[in-house]
């Protein structure tokens, strides 16, 4: 094939429990991932030119806020494609086109999703036929959120989030996401979390999965799930972006079953009772100060999938 397109979802963290800072600079985590129906698309194509001096891997980006996405070797999709070629033990060429719909630097793992999509697309384009287990291993070396973008649905991640176990989930959950102006740096948010804990004299607890959250997922109970949502990074995100507190309060005032900062932020996630309630809530939130836009989605959905 001359081109392969892969669709890949965003994620929301239903629980993000952050443990002590490790010697390697990471934190031990319990991270309950939930894939939602906001998608990027990544197309890997054979280069049209045969210029041997051209870079073997090139990337273009289309969509909103494309100026915030690197089109250099720092792009996670390029890094993923290069890691795949290294695993195969030879040089490969590809032009990558990323069509962005997932917020950039919004705490929804958009860059990690693009990396996962590039792995799947280039694996097919280059005819490597590597099994998903190998792709998961490569993904874990690229970033903590990349393996989940391959897996999708709902899963709990441990270690730094890359060791995944699927979770039983009944039914469909409906979400509203309030997208903020500008992003938040994930390392900066983790650093602020450590600083706030040190300032308060609070030792980081050993992270553990919430049994109430697991039960809510198994039973498909949206109201119980809303009450069980938790994010240890939320105080840090609010300290760095105080306006997010007003966004969360507005969602609760308008009847959200749960309101939480997604991952490191600044996107705020609201759980709704139904698709109709999600659309009503989105309409009410769109005029809140600090919201660039509001979108609805549902979950869980599959991970990176070759488009038909």
TrEMBL record:
Q: Where is the GHMP kinase C-terminal domain?
A: 213-282
What is catalysed by this protein? 4-CDP-2-C-methyl-D-erythritol + ATP = 4-CDP-2-C-methyl-D-erythritol 2-phosphate + ADP + H(+)
Query: Which residues does the entry assign to the active site, renumbered to this chain?
Result: 11, 145
Report whether Kinase shows up as a keyword of the record: yes
User: Which Pfam families does this one have?
Assistant: GHMP_kinases_C (PF08544), GHMP_kinases_N (PF00288)
Look up the EC number in the record and give it: 2.7.1.148
Major enzyme class: transferase
Answer yes or no on keyword ATP-binding: yes
Q: Which GO terms describe its molecular function?
A: 4-(cytidine 5'-diphospho)-2-C-methyl-D-erythritol kinase activity
UniProt keyword list? ATP-binding, Isoprene biosynthesis, Kinase, Nucleotide-binding, Transferase
Per the record, the domain of life is Bacteria
Where, in this chain's numbering, is ATP bound?
A: 103-113
The pathway entry for this protein reads as:
Isoprenoid biosynthesis; isopentenyl diphosphate biosynthesis via DXP pathway; isopentenyl diphosphate from 1-deoxy-D-xylulose 5-phosphate: step 3/6
Q: Which NCBIfam families match?
A: ispE (TIGR00154), PRK03188.1 (NF002870)
Q: What family is reported?
A: Belongs to the GHMP kinase family. IspE subfamily.
Q: What does this protein do?
A: Catalyzes the phosphorylation of the position 2 hydroxy group of 4-diphosphocytidyl-2C-methyl-D-erythritol.
Protein name per Swiss-Prot or TrEMBL: 4-diphosphocytidyl-2-C-methyl-D-erythritol kinase
Q: Which organism is it from?
A: Microbispora hainanensis
